[in-house]
Specification:
Number of helices: 12
Radius of gyration: 19 Å
Helix content: 40-55%
Order of helices and strands: EEHHHHHEHEHEHHEHEHEH
Largest sheet: 6 strands, parallel
């Protein structure tokens, strides 16, 4: 792939995935697209929200501790355990092993589980004409196929997933791996993430970062509380800043 020359000295953009380029189609990262084909939605909604959230939190504590998940088969096994924990916390859902495996499989192998923001679909191809692009995400192996399903994977020359690397942001290896694969120096790159802590991790390596806050309340909060950071609302704002 050939690139036009940037006028800013920036030759690469490293993107976080979740909340920057996409989000869950259901509005919840652990409610898969066909979740309510396996769970009675009326019963689920009848359970106090705090109790539901506690069940998700306990299961999330488990999955967050699994630092090394190298492929989708391993991802499936861990999410089966995730939903076993979830089911044990909410016995009223009546989830047996078959249903637990079905939900886990839907979460891992349903590559339509995330919806890409319209500006990402529109601008990623355009940005790839001028910049080398990378994804640097705290995620699991199936994310690669999500991008392929959306027709966006080929625009990224580097695709760094935390569970495959065995570390998560803001560990320096996440950023360094992308820089090495793109063959650019830190000063030639911009990192875009919704998490200020992750942006600070990139800044320590000399990578300029931008905090992308799509939610207006979060955007205003970040503008007030983090004046030293570059805060943008979307990819259109990003393009204006780097031109």
């Amino acid at each position: 792939m050939s690139y036009r020359t940037s006028n800013t000295g920036i030759n690469a953009i490293l993107f976080d995935s979740g909340k920057v380029l996409n989000g869950p189609v259901t509005g919840h990262w652990f409610i898969s697209p066909n979740f309510f084909n396996f769970i009675d939605e009326k019963i689920f909604r009848s359970i106090d929200k705090q109790i539901r959230n506690k069940a998700f939190h306990k299961a999330n504590t488990y999955i967050s501790r699994q630092s090394m998940i190298r492929n989708e088969d391993e991802e499936l096994l861990h999410f089966i355990e995730f939903y076993r924990i979830f089911a044990a916390e909410l016995p009223q859902l009546g989830l047996d092993e078959e249903l637990i495996k079905a939900i886990a499989s839907d979460l891992v192998f349903n590559y339509d589980k995330y919806k890409f923001y319209s500006d990402a679909i529109e601008l990623i191809p355009e940005l790839s004409k001028t910049y080398k692009l990378a994804v640097v995400s705290d995620a699991w192996p199936s994310l690669d196929n999500v991008f392929k399903q959306a027709g966006l994977r080929d625009y990224f020359s580097s695709f760094i997933i935390s569970s495959i690397k065995g570390v998560s942001k803001p560990h320096e290896l996440m950023y360094k791996a992308a820089l090495e694969e793109l063959e650019v120096s830190p000063s030639e790159a911009i990192f875009v993430d919704d998490n200020i802590r992750n942006c600070d991790g990139a800044e320590k390596l000399g990578v300029h970062s931008m905090v992308l806050s799509r939610d207006i309340k979060q955007y205003l909060y970040n503008r007030i509380t983090s004046p030293r950071h570059s805060i943008v609302r979307n990819l259109n704002d990003l393009m204006k800043k780097i031109k």
